[in-house]
Design a protein that fits this description.
- The chain is α/β, with parallel strands linked by helices and 305 residues long.
- The chain has 2 domains: 179 residues, FAD/NAD(P)-binding domain (3-Layer(bba) Sandwich); 119 residues, FAD/NAD(P)-binding domain, CATH 3.50.50.60.
- 24% of the residues lie in helices and 29% in strands.
- Strands 1, 2, 5, 6, 7, 8 and 19 form a 7-stranded mixed beta sheet that branches. Strands 10-17-11-12-13 form a 5-stranded parallel beta sheet.
- The structure holds NADP nicotinamide-adenine-dinucleotide phosphate.
- The site of NADP nicotinamide-adenine-dinucleotide phosphate has 20 residues, from helix 4.
């Protein structure tokens, strides 16, 4: 079994920042990422509220730079899935290898929540999408709907409006929860309209999406709304199923930590969007990662005494 000071599971902003700090502490660190390094922030094109970048910065550019900084420190990054984690004995297994480690940092992030309506699964990739940055160019001069009412909807509706002829925001309440600055921008965009107090009950089509059934929650009436694309931005679920019953989590699967990112198992830390907290942003995912690395360093040092 290979030995390693630290294994970080997940290569989004939290995991990469943890790797940066661990590398600077000269911990022998391995970062394991099952998808692309950069994480779910890459589903947005630009980040506007990361300090130091007036006018915003491309998410791909920001994550590329952090990855480069991490690699300069000799941190190893592998593209694999941590399929089985023994938290108590601090053993991390991938399909091809097993690592006995001094500490583990979980930075596994979150995945888009599904609407769970008929047609969603059938038309995923054929009009249904969870990533405007990836798929918006397919909807040039087409009509799309975007479901949800948070910051993600606001930002991605603006992005989609660069391509689509009409972007209809369908939200289940009368008010959006997106930041006021984003709502102001949406209101000024004449390609964006709002279908409020409404939910999508079905996604319909033939070989690809052709319409959605929209239910007005005030009147109870349902209408067939013609569109070519359905973008779903109704929040995220933590990627923590692989840790079920191994660490304390809340009812939704977010990992419970203390302020030092320590979980309920010694030597196992969690940071970023997979942990239970009140505010989910790139900036505090990075902050979490830095704290987790410092805590892991101190834990490993305490074991060596
Ligand atoms: P979010 O803030 O959790 O909002 C999810 C939205 O989807 C809410 O409006 C919610 O409605 C709605 N929703 C949830 N389940 C639904 C369902 N089953 N059917 C219909 N609607 C449903 O999620 P988000 O916008 O994806 O953002 C996730 C996190 O990232 C947030 O913390 C957000 O602040 C952050 N973020 C920040 C930025 C930024 O600061 N620039 C950009 C993107 C994301 P209700 O309002 O009725 O609950």
């Amino acid at each position: 079994m290979a030995k390693q000071d630290l294994v970080i599971i997940g290569g989004g902003p939290a995991g990469l920042t943890a790797a940066l700090y661990a590398g600077r502490s000269r911990l022998d660190t391995l970062l394991i990422e099952k998808m692309s390094v950069g994480g779910r922030i890459l589903m947005s094109e630009i980040i506007e509220n990361y300090p130091g970048f007036p006018g915003g910065v491309s998410t791909a550019e920001l994550m590329r730079r952090i990855q480069e900084q991490v690699k300069e420190l000799g941190v190893k990054i592998i593209n694999e899935e941590a399929s089985d984690v023994d938290c108590v004995n601090r053993i991390v297994n991938t399909l091809g290898a097993s690592y006995e480690v001094g500490a583990i940092i979980i930075a596994s992030g979150a995945r888009p929540r599904k609407l769970n309506v008929p047609g969603e699964e059938q038309y995923t990739g054929r009009g249904v999408s969870y990533c405007a940055t990836c798929d918006a160019p397919f909807f040039k001069n087409k009509r799309v709907v975007i479901v949800g009412g948070g910051n993600a909807v606001a930002e991605e509706a603006m992005y989609l409006s660069r391509f689509a002829s009409l972007v209809s925001v369908i939200h289940r309440r009368a008010d959006l929860r997106a930041s006021p600055i984003l709502q102001e921008r949406m209101q000024k965009n004449n390609k964006i309209n709002f279908i409020l107090n409404s939910i999508v009950t079905q996604i319909k089509g033939a070989s690809k999406v052709e319409s959605v059934m929209v239910k007005d929650l005030l009147s109870g009436k349902e209408n067939d709304f013609v569109c070519d694309g359905v973008f779903i931005y109704i929040g995220y679920e933590p990627e923590t199923v692989f840790l079920k019953n191994k660490l304390q989590m809340d009812e939704s699967g977010f990992i419970v930590t203390d302020e030092n990112m320590a979980t309920t198992v010694g030597g196992v830390f969690a940071c970023g969007d997979c942990r239970k907290k009140g505010f989910y942003q790139v900036i505090n995912a990075c902050g979490d990662g830095a704290v987790a690395a410092d805590s892991a360093y101190k834990f490993i040092a305490s074991q060596e005494k």
